Amino acid sequence: MVNYRHYFGDGSMDIICYETLDKQKLSKIEVPAAEATLFHDGQTVYKLYRYFIHGNWRYDPTPREKQFQKRKIELLSQIQDIPNAVLPQKQIYLNYNFVGCSMPYIPNATMLKDFEDFSSDANKYMKLIYLSTKTLKQIHSHEFCLPDLHFGNIVFNESMIPYFIDCDGWQKWIYKSVSYN
Predict the structure, then answer these.
(1) Would you tell me how many other CB atoms lie within 10 Å of the CB of residue 57?
(2) C-alpha dihedral sign at 29, 162, 136, 82
(3) Cα–Cα distance between 84 and 161 in angstroms, integer?
(4) Which end of the chain, N or C, is more open, meaning fewer C-beta atoms within 10 Å of its C-beta?
(5) What is each CA distance from 140 to 10, 71, 151, 169, 179, in whole angstroms?
(6) CB of 54 closer than 8 Å to CB of 64
(7) 47-56: buried (b, 16+ CB within 10 Å) or exposed (e) per residue?
(8) Residue 51: phi, psi to the nearest 5?
(9) What is the pTM of this model?
(10) Secondary structure of the chain in the HEC alphabet?
């Protein structure tokens, strides 16, 4: 087995070797994700960027773009205090190339865009709004913004707890322009 840590990283982020993933235990997650293919094993989601795996899918990222994405995953993995954000945990490498990341799996998650009946229980709806707002404040406190925020990037579990997904699309603020009073 190849020790990727020898080649990559300073030990600040754990690494997964794609070749060692047990593909028999992985289930594909059917979502309209444009930039990645998602799999899970019941505990962890594995997000594999299509352009890294298949090459020239939409475009072939420059080395700088690849390095930027890798660094962003490293930064996001260090955030520990946003419980309702599904943040990257480990980087995934294939043949010494960064190809994706792993993150926690939310069992029985429903995308907000697929939820049909908020009118049956106003308290559930208000709880969802409150927890989503609280999570956004936590995200902003780390100076990240969500340029790709839409109903498909918020899921909730059976207890109506919202989780923000697709966190690797977050962008670091250059200027603070939002304040909460």
Answers:
(1) 14
(2) negative
(3) 8
(4) C
(5) 27, 19, 19, 14, 9
(6) no
(7) bbbbbbbeee
(8) -70, -20
(9) 0.80
(10) CCCHHHHCCCCCCCEEEHHHCCHHHCEEECCCCCCEEEEECCCEEEEEEHHHHCCCCCCCCCHHHHHHHHHHHHHHHCCCCCCCECCCCEEEEECCEEEEEEEECCCCCEEHHHCCCCCCCHHHHHHHHHHHHHHHHHHHHCCEECCCCCHHHEEECCCCCEEECCHHHCEECCCCCCCCC
Pairing mode of beta strands 90-94, 15-17? parallel
pLDDT of residue 91: 92
Give the tens place of pLDDT for each residue, 134-176: 999 999 898 888 888 888 888 888 888 899 988 887 887 654 4
Residues in the chain: 181
Tokens standing for residue 42: 């019941």
Q: Can you tell me which residue has the tokens 């009946």?
A: 117
Weakest-pLDDT range from 54-68, 80-94, 117-131, 163-177: 54-68
Residue with tokens 């939409």: 58
Which residues lie across from 163 on neighbouring strands?
Answer: 155
pLDDT tens readout for residues 87-123 = 999 999 988 888 889 999 999 888 877 776 666 677 7
d(CA 129, CA 107): 21
CB neighbours (10 Å) of residue 113? 13
